Amino acid sequence: MSSETLISAKDLTVGYNVGKGFFDRTVLKAVNEVSVEIKRGSFFGLVGESGSGKTTFGRALLKAAPITGGAATFTDGQVSYNLATLAGDELKDYRKRAQLIFQDPYAALSPRMTVRDIIAEPLEVMKLTKTREETDARVREIAAKCRLNLEHLRRFPHAFSGGQRQRISIARALVSGPKFIVADESVAALDVSIQADVLNLLKQLQKDLGLTFLFISHDLSVVAHTCDHVAVMYLGRLVESAPTRQLFAAPRHPYTKALFSAIPSLDPDDRGSAQKLVGEIPSPLNQPSGCKFHTRCPNAIDKCRTIEPTLENPGDGHAVSCHRWRELLGAETTA
Amino acid sequence: MTSLIDVENLTLSFRTDEGLVTAVDDVSFSLGKGEVMGLVGESGSGKSVTAKALMQLNPGNAVYDPRSKITLHDEGREVDVLSLRKSAELKIVRGGAISMIFQEPMASFAPAITIGNQMVEQLQIHTGMTKAKAKEISIEMLDRVGISDPSKRFDQYVFELSGGMRQRAMIAMALSTNPKLLIADEPTTALDVTIQAQVIDLMKDLVNEFHMGIIFITHDLGVIAQTADKVCVMYLGRIVEEGPVREVIRNPKHPYTRGLIAALPRFDDLDAPLTPVPGDIPSPLERPTGCVFHTRCREIIGDVCKRDLPENRWVDPSHRVACHLHAKTPAQTEAVR
Lengths: 335, 337
Fold this sequence. Notes:
The complex is a heterodimer of chains A (about 325) and B (about 325). Chain A has helices spanning about 55-60, 90-95, 115-125, 130-145, 150-155, 160-175, 190-210, 220-225, 245-250, 255-260, 300-305, 325-330; strands at about 5-15, 25-40, 45, 70-75, 80, 100, 180-185, 210-215, 230-235, 235-245, 320. Chain A has about 325 residues and is an alpha/beta fold. Chain A has a single domain, classed as Rossmann fold (3-Layer(aba) Sandwich), CATH 3.40.50. In chain A, the strands form two sheets. Chain A has a seven-stranded mixed sheet, sandwiched between helices. With about 325 residues, chain B is an alpha/beta fold. In chain B, the strands form two sheets. Chain B has an eight-stranded mixed sheet with strand order 7-8-9-3-10-11-13-12, sandwiched between helices. In chain B, strands 1, 2, 4, 5 and 6 form a five-stranded antiparallel sheet that branches. The longest helix of chain B has 18 residues, at about 195-210. Chain B is globular and about 65 Å long. The two termini of chain B are about 35 Å apart. The interface of A and B includes residues 195, 197, 222, 262 and 268 of A.
């Protein structure tokens, strides 16, 4: 682990007990032995279909989902926490340092609170400010950074459009001065014309405040434009992880390739050229043997059905979990 | 191409506590048989309200302007949709000649009735066929849309199906009455990209097979490019641009359409900065005067945009745009150059 690493997860597992009786110990592993290192000041993207475990992984790093296996550490230069055992005062302190931005800005803001009260609430709950004047000053400062004006602070959320609401939730997440932000599908509910605006704002804030983002999204084109590093998850497993450019130039895992080709092309003459993925993501309770992806993989062979591949890192920072990626490298350039 | 449905001067407002809110303003378009039309716009642009007007599905506080006219051409008959009042008459636009697929299939199926019973029920209402025959057709349709083991699925409830399956079942149900027009309201928005690709493929196949007209409502221009023959772009209740899909995407005329295309993250150039359409969508209570888009327009000419409503201008026989940049009078055109 280098000194620049902010979050380091090693074989992180999140399991839920879903047994139907006292003796039934069936465990659903929503996140299964995922290892990532998130560098300080980076914009780390996490993609995958619904049910791939990306949200659960983000929440585990925020101590909002139970870590049942593996280890995760947070090191920001001032403190170093072991997230698996974090509790008590240390956990309270961690809450100031790590925050979440939700997907749906219509559901995330209380309709009965003014924007000022919404943004001030974390300060009051965490007792970060002593006087009302201090709170107000802090709220105004962060609101200005998120391009909200003073007049907005007196109003209620219903008066705002989706983009403005998302800026309010960003301000609320940033008011406690966190270092690490999990943005869970933060632009998915927004219209394209507004989406670009919010993404630009997130990038700007990252630069100005030195933040580190875990950006969870199912939209590869958004991830391509904002993130430095992208990890792809499938059924609780990490299947590929690489710097953005490398991943988009030459994806190695068949799942990543399929995700790319499923994006509808803006060219009306480029219809039907996509490499289609058959079927759907299997239930996490009834996981396939061997490689989790073999049931939908166009390149699956017998080995894939029996032996689970491990994440291999060939030394260029582009890790992949597939038996056949080397063979497939030259064979096709469809993606 | 023979026309399937003609919408003329559709203007619709909702009575609310804050007063009359205009949702659709002077919208006209027509759709031919077997034609796929994309209706694109942001939330609040009135695309769903327009589509629902075709089936008279808007709530009771909707006020239609008397100039509004929707004509459905169904097997030699001409149906004046907005004059239909009795539920027996409305059957033709609600599931008879027109069917609709909604965004969230979980919310559109009744949770406590099996999928099969819901399909049989609507078939019996619209075609008067026997229950046994309706069951046979339903299972056939489920099979056609790619649901494996259709006779088992027939007896299942909606919560037992995955998201993609639900949307397929929804499509099967909408098509079982053999409608002339299918309205698909954001049918793929709630789905993952891989499943979205499957559903789009399925819909393309079905268009070829059943030869019906489709109105495809979405905010995703990529989906439109993959499915539609022509596109209408809506902003704040008005159609600002209409044309063949290639024309509109490759050669957009309206600044809003250009802005929408520029705001899309592109794969070919990862370094290109994202360019949002500036500003926020105005509240429906504060409708801008003149051109509705002038508050966010990058190519605003001047007072004329704030004062006058731009008229619809056909820039070529199939491509029209409502923008002062493309106005007829030479004086204004010169000001742009």
